[in-house]
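Please fill in the sequence for the structure shown.

STRUCTURE ENCODING:
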């Protein structure tokens, strides 16, 4: 995901209702370099009608959710979406 960040994408993890120690261990084991915030009450999950995790939202610079990906995602899956957003902004 570092390459996406290098291209201007901002990444944010949301730790929903997880044990803090387990969540931290997961982040460290995967070498995630993006910030993660804790959502102990599930308020974020409820607001965005999450049906399971992980879910990924691609949000443009105006704050509009452009795509929602349910389940695991990868840099290869996100890269074309970022390409499209960057092309629209040019």
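FILLED IN BY: designer on duty
SEQUENCE:
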């Amino acid at each position: 995901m570092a390459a996406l960040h290098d291209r201007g994408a901002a990444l944010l993890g949301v730790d929903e209702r997880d044990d803090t120690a387990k969540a931290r261990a997961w982040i460290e084991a995967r070498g995630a370099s993006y910030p993660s915030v804790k959502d102990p009450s599930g308020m974020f999950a409820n607001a965005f009608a999450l049906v399971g995790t992980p879910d990924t939202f691609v949000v443009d610079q105006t704050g509009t959710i452009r795509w929602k990906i349910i389940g695991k995602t990868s840099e290869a899956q996100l890269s074309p979406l970022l390409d499209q957003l960057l092309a629209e902004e040019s």
